[in-house]
Write a structure and sequence with these properties.
The protein is mainly alpha-helical. The chain has one domain. 83% of the residues lie in helices and 0% in strands. The chain is elongated, with a radius of gyration of 15 Å. The model has no long low-confidence stretch (mean pLDDT 91).
């Protein structure tokens, strides 16, 4: 059951996350050409992937 919850949380939540990131970095807003904004983009993306990874590890450890 945890995998279904994880898929929902990171699927639906990820949709909102990536729409928001798109709106922030679209043309006329922030630019990935600027080093600080590019760094912010990578921090956001790695944070999303990091939280996903921690939750996957947590589920795997609980199942043992």
């Amino acid at each position: 059951m945890n995998w279904l919850q994880l898929a929902y949380e990171y699927g639906v939540g990820g949709l909102f996350f990536f729409i928001t990131v798109y709106l922030c970095f679209r043309e006329g807003c922030s630019s990935l050409d600027h080093p600080v904004e590019r760094r912010t983009f990578w921090i956001l993306l790695l944070g999303y992937i990091g939280y996903l990874g921690v939750h996957v590890i947590w589920i795997l450890l609980v199942r043992q």
